[in-house]
């Protein structure tokens, strides 16, 4: 498949990201301009050919590292000189060892790895929380066999705010930005007019609210997008998704993404400043419709409602404003009380089934009641079956990978109701 042709069809609306998800590996390597290649993968890899060797922005995930290497070797036989990690997520940082093996076998100098100075601390945290990260990523991607790595290729050099590399006479600018992570780097190659955004642009509503991951920074993210938009890049190569070609399209994609984040932040802060609870904020913030209609901002991975929660957490803390939640009762005890008042867990389960098929609000209520019933009667197979049906329906109705993964996991047989 021609990735550039697909990218154009997505932009014009001939197809959409519900069919070609930005986390999929669609198409083969494409040379986007002379000496610059784009490798579509679960996490994309961008390559720049210089007189001293290749510069890679991101290196791919462990399962696909050799495939990425093979694809690049079909384009260039230059040794890898420098690899830049756009950030420390594991789908971006596990391709270097393949090139190191190659360098050792051929007697080449080993490649260097460059990243932001906050990235090593991320790797340290990943080792410390390996069990947690294994669990949440199994759930998010519905991959029960996923194993979380505990060994990482740390960077050889780090930088604080900006670092300019000279590789074979080609200048490569590294810029730090807080966004999806605190260790993010976006890369600008001025001679080629090529911008590598990392995950600051991913052909989807920004991943600024992931329910199971650490804090994200939407306002700083928007600022970085505005700065990138001002460069006049002709080519945008994202960490996920598809190339964007043409200065007008590049600027529009970046500015629209910034506007979406700015709107979510400003609306959330306005409600917070008025004294609203999180519940009021979640149901009061509305993403601008004209932006959600953009083919590159659909909520197919993350979604605006989750971003609102992250804004609340960033500026307001963990308490949602409900006094009962400050020192809550154990969920199972609360569920048992509610079930007793209702006439038993079966009553809650029956009502949950009645609520299916009646729109988003009824579906949300069904989820509450099914989970309460399961908590109140953890050994009841009929209640468990209702819970499975309700959350399977929630997964079917959801648009984002985040929500689909959590709901589908909840619908699995034997899911612990706690």
Keywords:
2 domains, 15 helices, 7-stranded mixed sheet, 418 residues, elongated, Metallo-beta-lactamase, Chain A, alpha/beta, 6-stranded mixed sheet
Descriptive report:
There is one protein chain. The protein has helices spanning 3-12, 65-73, 96-106, 119-128, 130-141, 218-229, 247-273, 278-284, 289-292, 304-316, 331-342, 345-355, 360-376, 381-397, 401-410, and strands at 30-33, 36-39, 45-50, 53-57, 80-84, 112-116, 157-159, 162-167, 170-177, 184-189, 194-198, 235-238, 244-245. The protein has 418 residues and is α/β, with parallel strands linked by helices. The protein folds into two domains: 3-261, Metallo-beta-lactamase, Chain A (4-Layer Sandwich), CATH 3.60.15; 329-410. Helix 7 runs antiparallel to helix 8, helix 7 crosses helix 10 (304-316) and helix 11 packs across helix 12 (345-355). The longest helix has 27 residues, at 247-273. The radius of gyration is 23 Å and the shape is elongated. The model has no long low-confidence stretch (mean pLDDT 97).
- Name the shape in a single word: elongated
The number of distinct helices, counting runs of at least 4 residues, comes to: 15
* N-to-C CA distance: 45 Å
How much of the sequence lies in strands comes to: 15-25%
**Unreliable runs, pLDDT <50, ≥5 residues?**
none
The average pLDDT value, as a whole number, equals 97
CATH level-four homologous superfamily name of the largest domain: Metallo-beta-lactamase domain
CATH architecture annotation of the largest domain? 4-Layer Sandwich
Strand tally is: 13
As a whole number of angstroms, the C-alpha radius of gyration is: 23 Å
Helix/strand order, N-terminal first = HEEEEHEHEHHEEEEEHEEHHHHHHHHH
Structural class: alpha/beta
Percent of residues in helices comes to 40-55%
* Widest sheet, order of strands: 1-2-3-4-5-6-7
Under CATH at level 1, the class of the largest domain stands as Alpha Beta
CATH fold-level name of the largest domain: Metallo-beta-lactamase, Chain A
Our count of domains comes out at 2
Largest beta-sheet details: 7 strands, mixed
